Amino acid sequence: MRLEPVANPSALRRAGLPAAALLATIAVASGLAAVAGADPLATLGLIVKGAVGSKFAALETLNRATPLIFTGLAVAVAFRARLWNIGAEAQLYAGAIVTVLLGTGAVGGPLVLPLMALAAMAAGAVVLLGPVVLKTRFGVDEVVTTLLFNFIMLLFVSYLLEGPLKDPMGMGWPKSAPLAKEARLPRIVDGLRLHWGFALALIAAVAVWVIERRTALGYEMRAVGLNARAARFAGIPVDSVLVKTALLSGGLAALAGFSEVAGLKGHLTLDLSPGFGYTGIIVAMLALLNPLAVVPAALFVAGVFVGADSMSRAAGVPTYIADMLLATSLLFMVLAILLIRFRVVRG
Amino acid sequence: MMSLFDILLSATFWAAAVRIASPLIFATMGELICERAGVLNLGIEGIMVIGAFSGWITVWAGAGLWEGVAVAMLSGMLFGLLHAVLVVPFGLSQHVVGLGITLLATSTSYFAYRLILPEVTSPPRIEPFAVWEVPLLSEIPLLGPALFAQTPLTYAAFAVAALTALVLWRTPLGLAVRAAGENPSAVDAQGLSVTGLRIGAVMVGSGLMAVGGAFLTLSAFSSFFFEMVNGRGWICIALVVFGAWRPGKAVLGALLFAAFDALQVRLQQTPVGQVVPYQLFLMAPYALSIAALVLMSRRAEVPAALMQPFNRGER
Amino acid sequence: MIDPVVLRLSGITKRFGSLLANAGISLSLHRGEVVALLGENGAGKTTLMNILFGHYVADEGTVEVFGQPLPPGHPRAALAAGVGMVHQHFTLADNLTVLENILLGTAPLWRLSLGRRAARARIEALSRDFGLAVHPDARVGTLSVGERQRVEILKALYRDARILILDEPTAVLTPQETEALFRTLKLAVAKGLSIIFISHKLHEVMGVADRCVVLRHGRVVGEVATAETDRHRLAALMVGEEIMPPAVAPPKPGPVLLRLDRVTTPSQGSATGLRGVSLDLRAGTITGLAGVSGNGQAALSDLVSGLVRPEEGRLELAGAEVVRWTPRTAVASGIARIPEDRHSTGTIADFTLTENAILEGYRSRFAKGGWMDWRAARAFADGIIATYDVRCPGPETRIRLLSGGNMQKLILGRVLEPGPRIILANQPVRGLDIGAITYVHSRLLKARDEGAAVILISEDLDEIMSLSDTVHVMSEGRLSPGFARGTMSQAELGLWMAGHGFADAA
Lengths: 347, 315, 506
Fold this sequence. Notes:
- The complex is a heterotrimer of chains A (347), B (315) and C (506).
- Chain B is mostly helical.
- In chain B, 70% of the residues lie in helices and 1% in strands.
- A two-stranded antiparallel ribbon of chain B has the order 1-2.
- Chain C is an alpha/beta fold and 506 residues long.
- The longest helix of chain C is centred in the middle third of the chain and has 16 residues, at 175-190.
- Chain C starts with a strand and ends in a 9-residue tail after the last helix.
- Chain A binds chain C through residues 5, 7, 214-219, 222-223, 226-227, 229-237, 346-347, and chain C through 56-57, 73, 305-307, 326-328, 330-331, 337, 339, 344-351, 355, 359-360, 362-363, 367, 370-372, 400-401.
């Protein structure tokens, strides 16, 4: 078999193939439910109900989507420049650490929240800078280094929570002291369990979109990602563009940590992120790396997680079905996107 | 309290190093075969998880240990086939698909675990591979216990490494696999199927990765835990680079790495370990891998067509 | 007595969508015969060979080798039947040895041994018999282009090929290496092999072929015995019209705009660097750089493009030594750069025409304070499309959908519109059809007449000699003295290309 480019993909092709990928994912979900001895349709219904079936469920989904929008944006922006940042998890924790450092009394006043956010972004940016400099200076593949940094960072957080950052009132649990009241992100609407981190995530998505489409840096990032060789020849400073991309990407991932600590949890623990950094990759790929599409993609992914949790309690299908579905949807989606532009021919 | 000198002269230390190296050798050879054929396999981490799980659950269900190894290998090959089909004929991003495979294989393992053992809080243990002492050789001081008083899977790891080197450099098949990773057009021009060679290499490599994972449950820990692979797959990718894509050097790298790992565990028991936080010791393997990558970056002989999809229509 | 037919293609037709690549092509090859397959780019030669080798399946027609029909779509069938192909772009693995490259795919995959010893003996015997000297244990990456071609031929001979197909074999050779190749081919024919020789270099065809088959637009438009024709008649057949060499007015040389003073640059991998190259480029002239590819042309191109800085020596622009030399400063200094590879270096395939048009000027001309001015960018692209006759659906089309010629016109527009003082044209017409070639050449001449200094790098001696006011030859990173138009013959330039005449020649 051979792949042949499709010159001008039809609208049917553009819409139909991703839809087919979604359907295939649903088929897999039904299959898994059946394997687990549950009624497939009922299981799917329970997932949907658990994700958006009530005000509580919907708010839970929005809260879960918030860090995923940030990490999804971090990955999308990096992958756009073909910078393989698989280390959003580490950058998220870097942001969380700085948030706790500043928010537990070190600084006060009305500017504490913006200060925390900016400092968190700086910390995340610095964490990604290491692997990127290793890439531009020594040609070390950033996939492996960013992955390995995730493990190092988690151990570092573990050390902090058992040492310098340990909450003296925490009854021995490895958790940090709680943030001061003024360092907490307020709720958007009183009485609704949704904090300003979600609004910040939406603003970030629009900002990234504007950067990519309207600024010279965005043009440079896209050029470097599509063809670094041609970009370098044309006079685009590729290494410096990669560094700027890394700063942006690391900063966005760190905002996830800031928003989770300051908005939701109020303190830092070792299980602050159940893999938001890795899930951000799925969000970004489902969004086809488009910053605006990251928002619905993150909502979808968050909905699957929240819905699967709730379904699992009711129907007894293991909650890991959510991760399996997201992995299959990722694989189906990348295949569907390829098949929009290429058709398979024989010989 | 032991001093560093005592540690380095103890037979148990070297035996531990060889034991820790064994799963890494399996998985590193697996990744090396994939990359020699031109395919980066980031599915390695998840494939090790599925290998660890499927081998263990097979034995738990009553089958023999070697049957467990075989099931692990087959499940690894299955996920390898999925990875290969997506990245070889379709030419999809090897990074994205690899990470997707890791997520899929990991979550499949956890899903199946919860399905089979819904209520258990601590996973059941199995009877693992027993140590098989080689007569006479195991009596050599220091070297004997380290090299010749291990489980059969450790011996198998070294045999697999030797076999990998032999096949890749001494047989027509190995030559074709290496050529597929150097210049797929050359393979195609000789009427061989690049697609077939690459898919085959990824399947065999993934099978070995899964056996590496199975070593953890069937030979080392006797049980299956979440997060038990814990980045070993990523470390193996670093080891392939460190070994300059050569089996012999990669085995040396794995042994060196394992020795450091065994050392840090023992150093935690020394006076130094009382002062330095234990997390610093646990970080050492990951930091070491990054250091190795930087060290080898300038002189690595990376296969020329690594990560380059081959589509004849685009020539 | 007529020798038996060894290869017969009958009525081969192949369509790609609406494009008719091969239209009922029939061709036969006799034992001990050399047939030249002539035709322009896009005439259908490559498609025909891909069908013969089973890479494509023909819509109609059959292939017979030694009287046996070949099953369509099986790449191994042609090889097994004794047909060997020497591709224009070598299919060798640089990191493997000569021996490994030759052995690849010759033994059953599941055999337990490579059989190196026997193979080495056989390769040495073939090398001797056919005059193809090359060391079996050398890594291919260390070999010269000529040596690599010998490895390709050895690969075919090792597989007992009785029919050899050579695709543009001389494009990468010096005239002297070409002579050696022809001697090898004569030895092969004397041993009863048959050869198809694909080319568009007419003088070589006249020297080596017994018979010529000319393709145009996928059809056989002529089949003549070489003895009964001449170059002009063949050229007319190939193109369908007489090609007119461009009319060139005498140059009006101006001041030196760019000077290389004993410049040395580092070698990068197998790419040769410059070794003490001095060169003056004057306004209003075209300076041609001839030579076999891989002899430092890429290094010189990279230097002038701003990708590489001199390791030793000086690079002067309008009399002042350059500092901080990068692609961006090169563009800012008024250098127009037409890169060798328009697909991977000159354009970004998934960018639109607009985005490609502003690749070099986006910061200085199409952005203010970091914000893109897409309206201005679009207007610029529209202007190029109109002025340079770029055939496309519109400026928002992805450039990968354009033909090579239209892509090159967009690059021309991008680099010529700002009014450059210096133009670097590296292989500007490779792979283009006659119409596009004529257009590119006329643009370069026009720029010269308006006072630009043009550097033309090409492997095609005819192109260099017809356009250049001064010709230099590059060999192993060195530059020959400049020869004024018309003072050197092709043969004399060929000696320089082979490395004769340089001061430090061994």
